[in-house]
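Internal tracking record. Fields below are filled automatically when a chain is submitted to the structure queue. Please do not edit lines marked as system-generated. If the sequence contains nonstandard residues, flag them in the REMARKS field before resubmitting.
Queue: standard
Priority: normal
Entity type: single polypeptide chain
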Amino acid sequence: MIIAVETNDTGKIKRVYFDQLEDYWCKEIHKIFDTHISKSASIKTDKRTGNNPLKKEFDLKQIKSDKGKSSKELLTIIHQVKILVEKYFFLRS
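SYSTEM-GENERATED OUTPUT FOLLOWS
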């Protein structure tokens, strides 16, 4: 599973995109970029080496996660998405 989160100017979640992955190679990850992410978007991601080829086409800022310690912003967004997904499935059941 890969998740792309679009935020507004204040850092609040605007849109969330999900996609299933066969594997975590760049070719698979690239699908969500081609479908939902503009070439002019400013993108923050973890420092997985599989993301490196995306730097050629996208404005990609890679951040070492250090178990969430180095990027509180990304960790906060992950928690917000988790809560939204849990609410969605709770309301549907």
